[in-house]
Amino acid sequence: MSGASIEFRRVSKAFGDRRVLREVSLEIRAGETCVLLGPSGCGKTTLLRLVNRLEEADSGEVLFAGREVARWDPVALRRRIGYAIQSVGLFPHLPVRANVELVPRLLGWTRERRRARAIEMLRLVGLDPEDVGRRKPHQLSGGQRQRVGVARALAADPEALLLDEPFGAVDPIARGRLQSEFRSLSRRLGMTVLFVTHDVREAFRLADRIAVVAEGVIQQVAPPAKLRSAPASGIVEALVRGAETEPAP
Ligand SMILES: Nc1ncnc2c1ncn2[C@@H]1O[C@H](COP(=O)(O)OP(=O)(O)O)[C@@H](O)[C@H]1O
Ligand SMILES: [Mg+2]
């Protein structure tokens, strides 16, 4: 399946009297990898969770495939959008392959089709379906678990992927490898990706465009090179400069 667009139109969201998002507008094109980059607590996760309706906006609109998410059945919506988070959330009692087959099973795919898909996805993320596929999650390394999380998010052939710091718990070397593999994978699959990180290097490695979020608003949306050459605000400039002076991992 190919990618579907995601759009935020003047979206606001508060928790109690804390205004987290203020009239945020952003359009993620079909097939594009857009990275939401910003400091911890700036509202990235909230923005992401508005797409699959784990949060509801106070005002404004969120659209998936051109249709307001409020008008989608949440279950149908979530089956068309892969979602992976840092803590991964694999079912500990199920072997890896069964974890990857979960959404296809909910979708009523035949056992054979599910099996084949799980094997294909595990290979795609660089895991051996015969070995790793039979293990329980606790028998994997952190990096392997996060690969399984991505394989599971991809399993039902979604039109969009929401990834919330999916490589956050991995050591720097494995992380670099995961990032470059993910980059070639997302390009090959033509899927729309909305990727959250507070890691500037990661954003620069993965993004077609980066949306810098700070203080409840999007400071700038631009391809990585443009962000460097023409930062739109002091906040963006400081962020980019910080990444350049950081020592390599
Ligand atoms: N369910 C919630 N209830 C109350 N406050 C929340 C909730 N979710 C997030 N927040 C607050 O909203 C702000 C943004 O959170 P979040 O979107 O998780 O930021 P980020 O992902 O950029 O670190 C933070 O101050 C956080 O404490
Ligand atoms: Mg977050």
Features:
249 residues; alpha/beta; Rossmann fold; 2 domains; 6-stranded mixed β-sheet; 10 strands; binds adenosine-5'-diphosphate; binds magnesium ion
Summarize the structure in words.
By secondary structure, the protein is an alpha/beta fold. It has two domains: 1-80 and 159-249, P-loop containing nucleotide triphosphate hydrolases (Rossmann fold); 89-157, no CATH class. The protein has helices at 44-51, 74-79, 96-100, 102-106, 111-124, 142-154, 172-189, 200-206, 224-229, 234-245; strands spanning 6-15, 18-28, 33-37, 59-64, 67-68, 81-85, 160-164, 192-197, 209-214, 217-222. It has a six-stranded mixed sheet with strand order 6-7-8-3-9-10, with helices on both faces. A four-stranded antiparallel sheet has the order 2-1-4-5, covered by helices on one side. Helix 5 crosses helix 6. The mean pLDDT is 90. The site of magnesium ion (MG) has 3 residues, from helix 1.
What is the tally of helical segments?
Answer: 10
The count of domains is 2
Q: Classify the secondary structure makeup into a structural class.
A: alpha/beta
CATH C-level class of the largest domain: Alpha Beta
Roughly how many Å apart are the termini? 36 Å
